[in-house]
Amino acid sequence: MIGRFITSDLQMIRTDRISVAGDNLLFFDQIASETKNVQAHASMSQAFGDKTLSLLSSLSFGVIGCSGTGSWIIEQLSRLGAGRLVLVDPDVMEGRNLNRIINSRLQDVRSARPKVDVLADAIRATGLVHEVIALQESTFSPVVVRELAACDILFGCMDTYDGRDLLNRISTFYCIPLFDLGVHLRADGSGNVSTVCGSVHYLIPGGSSLLSRGVYAPTDVRESALRRTNPEQFESERKEGYVKGVQVHRPAVVSINGLCATLAINNFLARLHPFRLDPNSEIRWQTFDLVNGALSNNPDTAPCSVLAKFVGRGDMNPLLNSLF
Question: What CATH homologous superfamily does 47-212+252-321 map to?
């Protein structure tokens, strides 16, 4: 496939890439890419072939949220031979992060280093990734939105409803496939665990959304946004019973986060290099439940009526049709 842009003065400019954000991920490049470290990826090439390895080295990945699941995603993408990583997280290292952020150190906590810098330095040290961009900013920053809009694949590792809704919008407006990760643990604080589960949502432009799948409701997005933009009003409404409230710190275990991230990465690989017996169209929404020992593929919902009219809309004013 060949694509061209026509400028205002009727000049033809050939595109660098045509991508198809469907159940199978297809990329048609005009310029062949090469892996950065062929020897390091020899075993990867044996499993998936040189063509897939070369494609991985040409792709740009946006990872939003660099804590529990996000650090696992970043680590695995780098070892798989990702070409470019864009890391987004506004927070700095805290003591409670050490038990679950891959490659973090006590010195990072003492220095209050940005999470994105900790992970970016670790990835650069491997010499396996062509380019790493670390953005210590909110996902709601227009600069971040436009940087993510230039990525080929997005991995959302956020636990806020408004953040996940924003990523679903970026995916829709700019036609970028999105993997959304979520982990939920319910414990009483005394060692008794009642729930250990997680989910990986694969979202394509024009398909269902996290909203239409019932992951959250419009009121959840509104409350989450209120907490982010106006904490005082959020607290006032919470005390008055107008909002449900949100847990500040939730239980987190590194092995559960790693399982969820690995499920998402293998889901991505199966779409880039189809190897599953079941068609990828039937595996858009996976959940695991470690209490009951279950891994399930959930039926998808109808296309999202809220986002359908914005598929491929790209830049507009206001950005993403939202004032954030």
Answer: NAD(P)-binding Rossmann-like Domain (3.40.50.720)
